[in-house]
């Protein structure tokens, strides 16, 4: 018959030290389990709040979260090592107190000890930490930083092993952007607008700033030394809410004027020092991806950036609205010009285009495939740039060019800049 009995003589020394060690291990197990929930339950707003704090605990939390894979590996290694040691200590204590016969040894050493470990070392800490993630992450940041240093070799082995397994498992499941785009083209959606939006979402991460920015020649700016009357006149004529301000030229952008900042000063005279209201300009490289720029806009809470090349020269301007339009389509308000003004259809296959229209918009307007002019467009971004690529020289009024069944006539010039282009598409 299975029995369980308490030993007649129990040596205090045989259970005192293991009991103290087991209690410490249980606390460590609870802290490890709670830290996993605490750190990975922090919301984006929680992290932003911690980034704005200067105390060392908050900075440790931000530093630990900068490498979440290593943090998680450290927590898992520490938790498992502690749990193994805790089970060994608990088994030693139980065997020092009780005499088992039959199945009771399995019940105590496996079922009961495991249940208590899960209850006090896993479930209860996680439930408590879930309701106080910020406070607990601050409290546990010190021990975790030490453990991250101590367990670095084991954590690195786990990270590298898991990454290789993940790559192997997902090797046959990778879908290219092109395949996803083809799938969208074959999908029947409710409307053409939905189809365009899906296509925009797919290509969003593959689009560079230079592809959608307003070019340098289209920037409306203010001279730093301009009088207040000129500033007000420019605002009224353009309708823009944010205007770059430059020194000698557009390569010397000194700030951005927000029109709303002028509202309390509308009655000031021409000598009003409006330059004091300028905000710091934000510069971005021309080959930056727009999804990365969108994250920067959200983090910095700004809506406009100056695009520069590798030499620091101003190439254009991009706004938050330009980025959003890549997904949701054209956004217009009462101050925007009609999109149709960029081109006008004057015959069955004849158009008048504004030379600054983007090549992509031009191709869509004439109904050609997206890559129709890829072999001749070179680095051109606008229709005027395409004319320069075709002629390999500066276009002049009256020039006639042809490519892929399309005839181009330079209709009007604005100085040395191409203004209007007449296009005839062979039916």
Features:
427 residues, alpha+beta, CBS-domain, 4 domains, 5-stranded antiparallel beta sheet
Give an overview of the whole structure.
This protein is of the alpha+beta class. A five-stranded antiparallel sheet has the order 10-11-14-13-12, with helices on one face. Strand 7, helix 12 and strand 8 form a beta-alpha-beta unit. Helix 1 runs antiparallel to helix 4. The longest helix has 30 residues.
Secondary structure: elements and pairs:
Layout: E1 3-6, H1 12-40, H2 44-51, H3 56-65, H4 68-97, E2 98-101, H5 104-130, H6 133-150, H7 152-170, H8 177-186, H9 192-204, H10 209-212, E3 214-215, E4 222-223, H11 228-238, E5 242-246, E6 253-258, E7 283-285, H12 290-300, E8 304-308, E9 314-319, H13 320-328, E10 343-345, E11 350-354, H14 359-366, H15 383-391, E12 400-403, E13 406-414, E14 417-425
Parallel strand pairs: 4-5, 7-8
Antiparallel strand pairs: 1-2, 3-9, 5-6, 8-9, 10-11, 11-14, 12-13, 13-14
Helix pairs in contact: 1-4, 1-5, 1-6, 3-6, 4-5, 4-7, 8-9
């Amino acid at each position: 018959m299975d029995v369980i009995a308490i030993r007649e003589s129990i040596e205090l020394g045989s259970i005192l030290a293991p009991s103290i060690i087991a209690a410490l291990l249980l606390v460590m197990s609870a802290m490890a389990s709670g830290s996993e929930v605490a750190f990975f339950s922090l919301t984006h707003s929680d992290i932003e709040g911690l980034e704005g704090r200067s105390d060392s605990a908050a900075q440790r939390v931000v530093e630990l979260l900068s490498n979440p894979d290593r943090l998680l590996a450290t927590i898992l290694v520490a938790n498992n090592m502690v749990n193994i040691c805790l089970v060994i200590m608990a088994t030693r204590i139980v065997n020092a107190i009780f005499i088992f016969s039959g199945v009771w040894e399995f019940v105590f050493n496996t079922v009961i000890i495991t249940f208590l470990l899960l209850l006090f070392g896993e479930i209860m800490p996680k439930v408590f930490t879930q309701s106080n993630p910020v406070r607990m992450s601050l409290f546990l940041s010190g021990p975790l930083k030490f453990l991250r240093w101590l367990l670095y070799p084991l954590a690195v082995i786990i990270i590298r092993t898991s990454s290789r397994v993940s790559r192997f498992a997902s090797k046959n499941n990778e879908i290219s952007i092109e395949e996803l785009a083809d799938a969208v083209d074959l999908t029947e959606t409710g409307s053409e607008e939905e189809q365009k939006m899906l296509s925009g979402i797919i290509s969003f991460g593959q689009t560079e700033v230079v592809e959608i920015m307003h070019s340098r020649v289209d920037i409306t700016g203010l001279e730093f030394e301009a009088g207040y009357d000129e500033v007000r006149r420019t605002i009224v004529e353009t309708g823009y809410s944010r205007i770059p301000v430059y020194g000698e030229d557009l390569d010397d952008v000194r700030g951005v004027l927000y029109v709303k900042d002028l509202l309390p000063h509308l009655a000031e005279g021409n000598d009003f020092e409006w330059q004091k209201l300028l905000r710091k300009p934000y510069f971005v490289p021309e080959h930056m991806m727009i999804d990365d720029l969108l994250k920067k806009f959200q983090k910095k809470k700004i809506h406009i950036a100056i695009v520069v090349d590798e030499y620091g020269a101003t190439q254009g301007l991009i706004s938050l609205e330009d980025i959003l339009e890549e997904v949701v389509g054209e956004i217009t308000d009462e101050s925007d010009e009609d999109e149709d003004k960029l081109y006008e259809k004057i015959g069955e296959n004849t158009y008048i285009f504004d030379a600054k229209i983007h090549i992509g918009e031009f191709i869509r307007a004439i109904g050609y495939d997206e890559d129709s002019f890829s072999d001749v467009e070179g680095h051109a971004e606008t229709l005027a740039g395409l004319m320069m690529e075709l002629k390999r020289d500066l276009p002049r009024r009256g020039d006639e060019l042809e490519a892929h069944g399309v005839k181009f006539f330079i209709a009007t010039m604005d100085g040395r800049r191409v203004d209007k282009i007449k296009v005839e598409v062979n039916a």
